[in-house]
Design brief:
The longest helix is centred in the first third of the chain and has 56 residues. The protein is mostly helical and 207 residues long. It has a three-stranded antiparallel beta sheet. The protein has one domain: Ferritin (Up-down Bundle). Helix 1 runs antiparallel to helix 3 and helix 3 runs antiparallel to helix 4. It contains four helices and three strands. Strand 1 and strand 2 form a beta hairpin. It starts with a helix and ends with a strand.
Amino acid sequence: MQKTALTLATLILLATTLAFGADNAARTQTADDLTAAFIGETTASAKYAAYAKQAADEGYTKISRLFEAASRSENFHANNHRAVLEQIGAPIPDVKPEYQVKSTMENLKDAIGGESYEVATMYPEFLQNAQKSRITIASISLNYAYETEKTHKRLYTEALAALQSGSEGSLSGQYAVCSTCGNTYDTTVPERCGICMTSKDRFVYIP
């Protein structure tokens, strides 16, 4: 009887130790994911700002505004990820964005590729890891970016189609970006953000 009790106690201790280790591993993974996301969003913000200038130089004013709106959005995402990293005590990397500016058509294709990867692979994986880590604020920040990137992918895809068909003028010339989550609107702006419920008076409007 004593042997059985000892064995049971040992199993409970082992299970607790393994669970604690798994939680620590998950938290470490989420910190790594947030770091990667922070680097990616910081780079995207700088890149899209450069793409906006290129589009303006080529005379594509409306596409330039789209890139500017996306650049602002990605900056909000980067700042959110940075805030979470600071809160969980993770180091903040010094990011030096590297990218190439090509023609506006090529830049749109590049942007679509980046957004597609984030929507299909990167953020879904990071969100799963964050759920395991039980770091709620990490899940929130990652989800803000994930939901917004879906919209960016759509907007870039529409812009590329318009450019290829010679109908850039049909695109929206005004954008609104939620300052909390980066959600981006090209049509009617609701009273509150559809992702985070932030009031529209706290949106950034372009132009």
